[in-house]
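Support case: user asked for a sample of complex input and structure output to validate their parser. Sending the pair below.
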Amino acid sequence: MKRVYVNEKWCLGCHLCEYNCAFANSGRSNMAMALKGVTIHPRIQVEEDPVRDIHFAVNCRHCEDALCVKSCIAGALSKKDGVVVIDRDKCVGCHTCVLVCPYGAIMPDESGLVMQKCELCTKNGRDIPACVDGCPNEAIVFEERG
Amino acid sequence: MRYVIIGNSTAAVGGVEGIRKVDPNGSITLIASEPHHTYSRPLISYLLLGRTDENRMKYRPDSFYEENHVDAHLGVTVTKIDPEQKYVETSSGEQFPYDRLLIGTGSRPFVPPMEGLSTVQNRFSFMTLDDARALDQVLMPESRVLIVGAGLIGLKCAEGILHRVKTVQVIDLAPRILPSILDETGSAMVQEYLEKKGVSILTGTTVERFDGHHATLTNGTACDFDVLVVAVGVRANTELAKEAGAQVGRGIQVDGEGRTSLPDVFAAGDCTETMDLASGTTHVMAILPNAYLQGEAAGQAMAGRDAPFDNAIPMNAMGFFELHMITAGSYDGQELVWKEKDSYKKLVLRDGKLVGYILIGDVARAGIYTSLIRQQTPLDEVDFDKLKDHPQLLAFGPKTRAEKLGGVPR
């Protein structure tokens, strides 16, 4: 299946992926309206070391053998066509997924009561994840690799 | 191949899914005492809190048994395992033959002998859906609730019911709350937070004697209450395995694939004791993710594939009134501690590796720490100064990051 892969050396650390993610999942049609004056809660997060000039974006790896799915106490996480998806109605925000995810790629949403994660934009009507679509430098790509 | 599974909770579901990864065709018979569709026991406090309901707290969808071709006998209790003739027998005398058996009988509340306990009319345990339903029935706005036990179960119960009763008093014989999960600093911090939210907590004392609605405590004081919840601890349900002749300590003894000492009999979950990678000791861990992983490993082994679960560690994610804490591993080693007003972090190192941690307040990305413990990563292979700051993948070298994020084969 297609996944989001990181080309670390091309990442500028511009954080556009974070904004595009927050906008894509905001349910709003206007980016400025959706994001102006709010603290964004993106499902992709840029890590950076300014001293060594290293930047890269981290989002869910959609692991083959996903520990979060196996560990979820509510049965809220599952795999659907290879994508790790979350049923936010079932999630109680216990943070067990945060305890086990080796990538640190799952986090509470803006309410703090329910978790959120990258679902490759499968639930917001996009063919290409918004983070990849808006990356100016191909530092994240959406590809099928072995 | 005929598989029989005793139990219907996390380990049993892991067992079903493990078997089906390998063997789509063998027959699976699942037998469990509780009459309910598989549900998540830790969610009962969220049920009382109103954050979930009985439908949403199902651990797997309604179609689970059908989709996995499981012949489920719910509300049926297995009373005997015959490891020679290879069958299990239920309380009604029905026999189910097996080629491979998985015991996922879980644990039950431990209620210590307490004088006058039988004089208490409204007394409950807090473990099953039926416990939660029963407690739900008696809670009134004017109820004074006494919870004996300040462990995870007792305190989650307190959180679940505080908003709908007059008072919640928690008492524990131990000198501090959550003694098996937190250290002294963490316990004190969480206790203060819970008290601020309105939970009364008394440590270092327990009930000397009950008399109806009155409890005399060992510290000389007394407590009047309307509803009693006893959450002192749990005991593994090992009797079936023991009577069948399996090696049993505090839990059923198993290897990494869930094999018991009896041929073709496997066990997983809270009824077992397992090797704790972080401390190097064997004990009953009763951790939900571990129960699933053990059940899944056992299921696969039963179907002929060895995929051991051999890096179990104690680990917990807990939240009380939106204060979150995540802990993992062993606290025996060199300690690094950061304490601020609303957050606490402790990292524990031994032999050049991270073996345990406590995070309270800021728990973001804790799984990166958990993974270092489970993988036993030597800290000289990572940038530990960065990890001390917070869990982050920058701590790994470019090659490891390319593997983790860039899809570059290892």
